[in-house]
Each structure stands twice: as structure tokens, then as C-alpha cells.
Amino acid sequence: MKKTIILMVCICSLAGFSQTKKDTINSIGLDEVVVSTQRFAKPKRKITQQIESISKKEIDFNNFQSSADVLGNSGTLAVQKSQQGGGSPIIRGFESSRILLLVDGIRMNNLIYRAGHLQNIVTVDKNMIENVDVLFGPSSTIHGSDALGGAIYLQTKNAKLLSDTDNKKFSGTVLTSYNSVNQGKSGHLDFNFAGQKWGSLTSFSYNDYGDLKMGKHKNGSNDFFGERPFYVVTNDGVDTKVANDDKYVQKFSGYKQYDFMQKIIFQQNNRTRHSLNLQYSTTSDIPRYDRLTDLGSNGKFKSAVWNYGPQKRLLSAYKLDKKKVFLNSDMNLVASYQNIEESRITRNFGNPTQSSRIEKVSIFAINSDFKTKIGNGDFIYGADVYYDDLNSSGIKKNILTNAEGIADSRYPDGKNNTFRAEGFASYSNDINKTASYNASVRAGYTALNSEISTNFLNLPYTNVSQKNFTYSGAVGIVNNASENTKIAFNLASAFRVPNIDDLAKIFESAAGTLIVPNKDLKPEKSVTADLSITFWEGKRFQFENVFYYTRLYDAIVTAPFMLNGQSSISYAGANSPIYANQNQGKGSIVGISSTLRSYITKSFLFYGTFNFTNGRAQNSKGEFPLDHIAPFYGKTGFKYESKRVNLDLYMLYNGKKELSNYSPSGEDNLQYAPKNGMPSWETYNLKGSLSLLEQFTLYSGIENILDTQYRTFASGINAGGRNIYLGGKYNF
Question: For residue 166, what pLDDT is reported?
Fold first, then answer.
């Protein structure tokens, strides 16, 4: 990447006549912003942690193809991809099970969230999202286990009453778009009925994405990489290596997704509101693109089939909001149930035996939040109870004879469950007119049980169980020394309790590398200190810098392991080295995040972000790089905003990942990077919107204008090349 980071680009979006006057005012009004990541809304000026928000307006304007792309194009965090139908966010060097995903305040993380690369965020339809809040840094005292690096709060649209819609009984939105880079077709419809006390919102989305075409032009002086010159075709059970008509088309990367949501609210009285939230998402088979490109030493493809089966997510939740319940406390009470189904369908090239490994997860939860006043301060307290259950199975089938049998499952095929019960409390108050503080604590109990019924590997044990007491705390202070300055300091601990994926999985993480259970794994913990300094100039200028340092204890790292006195084992027809998740000493992560927004005029906004993270771990054998540490990255550009037209010209950029900085665990996917490491890259993009009528907005733009060939850090698929898109939004 060029040392002098050139200029950037810019943006524009217009909200059309259908938006309120407030929406069309160009300003950086952070005093008015409130966020929902703290379980109750709170002014952003009084929050000590770094928070970035992405609005519905931005999501519509930018024509994102998935919720993962919403985050990956923000310039504030990185996203890894193993296939087009995926996206694994990275926050401050933490990924997957080390960050917490929440939809409408409900945890998505479950007992099989893995530490590698996780694609579950795409199951939340980007068209349903009203707002995204990203909370950077440890968040265990508010949200519990897993939030070592931060939390991503996805707030979907809510049903509205007449009082919310200016007495408009029926309203809704129609969205549609087309993308040239993958012949992507998307459609969305939502419909709201508003009554005096009752409200109902129904939403449906359909997305059909074809094979993704990569960029054709060399990235600076770097070699071409990632082309798809051949692929596998199977006819009558015979696998054949076939030449690709266009090596830039990444064959077998397309997929389809369907999303449905139904919300109902009932305003019983001024003090009581009931809400029902139903969500369902499913997909076609999603090819695991990186595995389909793996070649053996003989030059033949290793896999003829490697698909994620339909990824199904069902959420049902009831919420009770009641004011002044007891001790003068406002209450939020949520009872929820989630049902998740995932599967992996694999078959080696030339082998007629196809294996399907199926995971079915049920999650039961009760969450209670209470807010009251103690003196002049806010006191928030509550309890969370979760019970997760997993059924894991394996089936093998001969595609020639259709004969079926039992295959080894990814997780133990007996009973698998986890239980968690935790309580928390948080207090915040003003020190004086300019300064305030907060302090919070959480404590709880967790239990895990996993039983192995079919012992394919002759493990020396058939049961894995754990019981842990958990705790964390946080203190923070913020000083708004003037209307133009905010200084905040935060010190927080966090924890992540090992789940079934950590403790009990049997998995080929990379070709020829087998991960086996380790029943002695302990929770990993962290302590983080961060300092943020923010400058404002009225509502026209903001410059924020956040410095952070994290210390990891008992960090869970995948490393060589001995099983029955052996360091390798025969698995899937090959002699595979044995690995297992282990607590590997201590680690440290240090970094900086900067954000700049400045209105040059009332209509022109200049903005930029920069992020740098460095992470190392240390054990008895020495020091080594931590996994999931993205190279420096960011976004910079210009926006033009007016009442009818919005334009955005911007640059996304990423630094180089040197070979010496790749983690030895294999999680960084060095095998899918060029021989000299992952090259730096930048893309230039132009987007715009035009409000033709009061209720209709037209969107269009060009992404990756120079058609650059590149791949994001740790990914196994090249990013899209030049993409011309067209879309429209109609509000009624």
C-alpha cells in the first residue's frame, strides 16, 4: 500500500421528501445520540466506551448486500470471509466467540459459536435493521460471557402505534436492487398497521446472489492471485476437473437467502407495554468457497463438495416493559427461544461417500433489567438465565448406491447442554457539571455437560463436564471539560467461558489437521484499559482518538496435542497431526482507533477512520503472534448532502499482513494468502441517491471502480471486482 494515503472519496445520501426535517439537517449532533448497547438508553456523551453507530439511512444508501457488509464497509472494524455467504467481524483483534452478537438485545452467541471464523451475522436481514451499535472493548459486566472484544447490537425495525406515525394507519417500505458483480437480485417488503393500542409490522426479504466475480486488475506490484481456472463437475457420480470459461468468476460462490419478521406491540396503558418478536431466516446451500479451491500434492482438487447446508435461525421473544414496578424501578423483562440449525456437507474428490454433519441448537433465555434512581445517579440491575441444548449428528451416504450409514459428528453425539445464571449491577452519577463516572459488576455460575455416545476415535473419556463461577467488573470516568472536549477513561475485565465448540469438538480445521476435545480447558479472561479523547467544534467537527491496551489471561489457543500418547491419528483417510484448544499463557493487544468528521460547508462532509492493532501471546516456548489481528485499515472520503441528492466518494484501505505476523494456530488462513503474505489494497467507490418524488428514492453507484483484485485479511475468497448497482426505495 502506498505510504501516502491518498484521498478519498466521498459520499452522499439523501433522505427524500418522506424524511423529517431533522433528518435533512447536516450536523454532527452527538449530544442528541442515545445508544441501546447499555440495556437502557443513555446519552453518548456520558458513555466511557467507544461506540460507533450505523443508521438505517446509511444502510439503505450504501446498498449493502448483507449485514456483514454493513460492518465491513464502515471503516471501523474488519470482516473476514470464507465464502460469499458469510462474514466474520473482528473487533480489536477479537473475532467470533470472543465478541458478542445481539439482535434486539437478545444474545445470538450459543454453545457452538466457534473461535475461528463465524458467519452467523448474515442471518440477520440487513433490510430489517433499524440501527447498528458497535460497542468496542470488554462488555462482560453488561452482557456476560464472550464480550472480550466488544458487542454488536443489531436493532431491527419495531411495530408502530398511531401516536408514532402521525395517525397514519397503514405504512410500509418496498426496496429492490441489482448488482452486476454477482448478478445479485434483492427485494424487500415491510408493512405496518398502527392502531391506538395495537401495532403490527410484517417484513419479508429475498436475496439471490450468483457467483461473485473478482477484480481483473493487478493490485499495484503484487502478483495476481485467487483466480479460478478450474472447478469440479460431477456427472453420474464421476468427478471431473473442468476449465473455467472466465477465471475471474469464482464458481460455486452464489447462494440465496430468505428472511421473515413479524412484530406485534400492545400498549396496555401508560405504564405497560407488551411486545412479540418473531424472526426466521433460511438459505440455500452455501458453498464453502475456500475449501473448494484446495488442491492436493497431485494437483487434484481435495473436495468435490463442501457446502454449508441451509442456515436456519428462528427467534421468538416476548417482552414486557413496565414503569415503576417496585423500588421505583422501570423494568424490561424478555423471555426468548431460539432454534438454530447448521450443517456441513462434504465429499472428497473421487470418493462416492458424502458426509453430512448436522447441528441443532435450542436456546432458552430469560433476561430482566431494572432501572431506578439512587440519589441523583442511575442504578441498573438485573439477572440473565440461559439454557442451551445441542443435538449433533453425522450421516454418510454413497452417491452411487444411495446407501446410508452413521458418520462421526462434529460435536459429541450424546447430550450436550450449558446452563448460565448471572446477576449484574451498574451505577452511574455526575461528579460535577462536567464529569461523571460509572461502575458495574457481574457474577454468576455456569455449567457444561457433553456426552460422547459413539467413540469413533477411542477417546480416553466419554464425558466432558465443567462448572465455573464467573465475575467481571468495570469502572469508567468521563469529563466533558468544555462543550468542545470529551476525555474518557475505562478499565474493565471480561471473561469467556469455554463452550461445547471449545471443549468437545472433533474437527478438521485445515487439511490434514485434526482438533480433538480437551476437557481441562479453563475460562479465558482479560483486563482492558482504554483512553479516548474527543474534540468537537459545534456540530460541524469531531475528532476522536481511542487508545487501548488489553491483557489476556489463560488465552485459548489451538496447539499440538497428545491423545493416548500419540501426536497423530488416522482420520478421513489420512494421518493427521492432533491439535486441541489449550490455555496458552498470557497475551497482550494494543491499538489505536481514530475517527474524523468535518463539515467543510453545510453540504460537504470530509471524514476518515484509521485503525491499528497489534497482538502477541507468550507461553513456555516463547512469544508468537495472536490470531485475528488485522493489519491497519480504514476509510476516508467526502460526502455531499442536499435535500434531493446525496453523493459519496470514498476509499477503503488495508495494510499488508506480513508472514511473520501470522498466527501459528492456522486461524489466519495463511494457505489462502499469496506466498509473501496478504498484500495491502485500496478501493475507490462512488455512490449516490436521488429523491425523485416525495416517497421514492433511487440509489446507484460503482464499487471498486478500478476493478482491483484483492482479498481481505484471513479470507478464503477474493473480494468483488467492479460492481455497478441500481436500487430503489418506495415508502407508502
Answer: 80
Helix (H) or strand (E) run with residue 505 in it: none
Secondary structure (3-state) at 120: helix
pLDDT value at 17 more than 50 = no
CA distance linking residue 378 with residue 632, whole number of Å: 38
Which regions of 483-540 does DSSP assign to beta strands (E)?
Answer: 485-496, 507-510, 513-515, 524-537
**What is the chain's percent helix, strand, coil content, to nearest 5?**
5, 55, 35
Residue 541: phi and psi, rounded to 5, are -145, 135
Residue 276 has pLDDT above 80, yes or no: yes
Q: Which of 72, 124, 420, 410 is nearest to 277 (CA)?
A: 124
- Between the alpha carbon of residue 352 and those of residues 308, 398, 407, 409, the distances in Å are 19, 5, 14, 19
Q: Are 459 and 450 in contact (CB under 8 A)?
A: no
CA dist., res. 368 & res. 363, Å (int): 16
The residue among 354, 441, 363, 286 whose CA lies nearest residue 109 is 363
> In this structure, which amino acid lies at residue 78?
A
- Average pLDDT on 462-491 reads 92
What SS3 class is residue 462?
Answer: coil
Query: Residue 718, Cα to own-chain centre: how many angstroms?
Result: 19
Task: Name the residue among 634, 628, 630, 595 with its Cα closest to residue 613.
Answer: 630
Q: What is the mean pLDDT of the chain?
A: 90
Strand stretches in 375-434, DSSP E: 377-398, 404-406, 416-430
**Residue 579: φ, ψ to 5°:** -125, 160
CA atoms within 13 A on the CB side of 289: 27
Please, is 543 exposed, middle or buried when counting C-beta atoms within 10 Å of its C-beta (0-12, 13-18, 19+)? Answer: middle
- Side-chain-side CA neighbours of residue 667 (13 Å): 26
Is residue 137 within 8 Å of 547, Cβ to Cβ?
no
Which amino acid makes up residue 589?
A: I
Cell numbers given for 619: 507461553
One-letter amino acid at 49 equals Q
Pairing, β 129-136 against β 51-55: antiparallel
366-383 residue pLDDT tens: 999 999 999 999 999 999
